[in-house]
Specification:
By secondary structure, the protein is an alpha+beta fold. Helices cover about 35% and strands about 20% of the residues. It has one domain: Bira Bifunctional Protein, Domain 2 (BirA Bifunctional Protein, domain 2), CATH 3.30.930.10.
Length: about 325
């Protein structure tokens, strides 16, 4: 008989999960944001060069477990669905540890007509009441990426200098940073942000970092007033990244260029080859409405709400005993 049949977490935490899901659904119902479902198993997958995925075969075709429901939800937006949200499972291969489980629960939503500031209001209105009765008292802070990066590193993230970035890494006893980042400004920014900045964020509540450098755009549009910046926001509580959001890119030509760059990076990294999602690009070409969207890892949120130390502590069954 297998001994570890019991749940990974307490029954009380499963009850907390149910209560949080009820609260989230009540919030979006009140906001008249429609709950939708999209496939977890699809014929295409994202091109992000730093994400790995699970795949399988069916009827002589390859299918992929989605790393997020983003592309399918944007196809609904392009079809005229309007503002919508989803609570679903997503999958990322090779991610297991304190803050990661290969299978995880994600909340993703899109608000038609919202800009990045409106989206941050939405995050505040959703998360702060959930955090109010915890040691993170529901307070909220918004900081521009440039300001917070300069505060903790002394560097201007819009002016890349390899010697200066290396010097900061060495101050934090990371002399091998050059081997990890090479001469890629985006890799250096991600590395130094996680090393020097992230742990300082959200110690009292929700911290939102917005207007990321343009070399870290993901699926965000560039700032119309300053093309050195992208309309992107990340949400942190207690030094943990909760979510990532954008004033969404609607330009199909620019999106295809980004896909091509990421596919080339995947080749350089010797990652599994992927193709551009043709249906998603066709949806963008038909016209995606101006909108903002954000995804939050609900398991991480539950970690914070219950003051747990690792993600397995809030899962019914973690990957170790699934």
């Amino acid at each position: 008989m297998i001994a570890d049949w019991q749940p990974s977490c307490s029954l009380e935490l499963l009850q907390l999960r149910a209560a949080v899901l009820r609260t989230i659904r009540a919030y979006f119902y009140e906001q008249e944001v429609l709950e939708v479902e999209t496939p977890i198993l699809c014929q295409s997958i994202g091109t992000d060069p730093y994400l790995d995925f699970f795949s399988t075969d069916f009827a002589a075709k390859s299918y992929y477990l989605q790393t997020s429901p983003e592309f399918s939800m944007k196809r609904l937006l392009a079809a005229g669905m309007g503002s919508c949200y989803q609570i679903t499972k997503s999958f990322r291969r090779g991610e297991a540890g304190r803050y990661h489980n290969p299978e995880f629960t994600i909340l993703e939503w899109y608000r038609v007509g919202f800009d990045l500031s409106d989206l941050m209001d939405d995050v505040e209105n959703l998360l702060c009441p959930l955090l109010r009765d915890t040691r993170f008292n529901g307070s909220v802070e918004r900081c521009a990426y440039v300001d917070i990066f300069q505060k903790y590193t002394g560097l201007n993230p819009l002016q890349f200098s390899l010697p200066a970035y290396q010097a900061v890494a060495e101050e934090f006893n990371c002399s091998d940073a050059h081997q990890l980042c090479g001469e890629d400004p985006s890799l250096w920014l991600d590395f130094l942000f996680s090393l020097c900045v992230q742990n300082e964020l959200g110690k009292k509540g929700v911290c939102m970092i917005y207007n990321y450098p343009a070399c870290l755009p993901s699926l965000a549009r560039l700032n119309k007033d300053n093309e050195l910046l992208s309309e992107r926001v990340e949400v942190f509580v207690n030094g943990i990244e909760m979510g990532n959001g954008y004033f969404e890119l609607t330009d199909v030509v620019e999106q295809e260029k980004r896909f091509e760059r990421e596919i080339e990076l995947r080749k350089q990294n010797k990652s599994t080859a992927v193709n551009k999602d043709a249906r998603f690009l066709a949806a963008l070409n038909s016209g995606l409405p101006d909108c903002s969207g954000l995804a939050i890892g609900l398991d991480r949120l539950l970690m914070v709400l219950s003051d747990q130390n690792k993600i397995a502590d809030v899962l019914a069954f973690s990957i170790e005993n699934a």
